[in-house]
Amino acid sequence: MKQYDVINNPFRRQMADAPFLLVLQHDRNTDTVNVIVAPLSLSARPSRREVKLTVSGRDCVMLPMELTSMARSALPDRAVTNLAHESFRIQTALDIVFSAAG
Questions:
Q1: What predicted TM-score, i.e. pTM, was given to this entire model?
Q2: Going from the N-terminus, what domains does the chain have, and what CATH number goes with each?
Q3: Which residues of 40-54 are buried (b: 16+ CB within 10 A; e: fewer)?
């Protein structure tokens, strides 16, 4: 998986509201067992930190306060799409979480 790939959420309990996960980990970190992802919610409200992203025609909101890691072996084989064209907005949201940028 590449950074900003969107994958189908393999966690059944979360699928109804968060059908997708966004891969945040940079491509250089392929030697790790886990991958850092953020859920993409259908019901969350967008803000400066929770940015709205469109995936397969559906408006989703990235939830950067719910970052998690998952086993690389549990990732689906194919990405739904890649949101690299939204990298500035995604990174700005992460900066709000991890720095004084907010």
A1: 0.91
A2: 5-98 (2.30.30.110)
A3: bbeebeeeebbbebe
Both tokens of residue 6?
Answer: 């969107």
- Please report, for residues 20, 76, 78, 85, the alpha-carbon distance to residue 64 in angstroms, rounded to integers and kept in the order given: 13, 21, 23, 18
Q: Which residues pair with 8 in a beta bridge?
A: 20
Can you give the C-alpha Rg of the chain in angstroms?
A: 13
d(CA 9, CA 16): 10
Question: What per-residue confidence (pLDDT) applies to 102?
Answer: 60
Residues 3-46: pLDDT tens digits?
999 999 988 777 789 999 999 998 788 888 999 999 999 999 99
Cβ contact 23:4 at 8 Å = yes
Query: Considering only CA atoms, which of 78, 38, 95 is closest in space to residue 62?
Result: 38
The answer to whether 96 and 18 have CB atoms below 8 angstroms apart is no
**Helix and strand element counts for the chain (H, E):** 1, 7
Say if residues 66 and 55 touch (Cβ distance below 8 Å). Answer: no
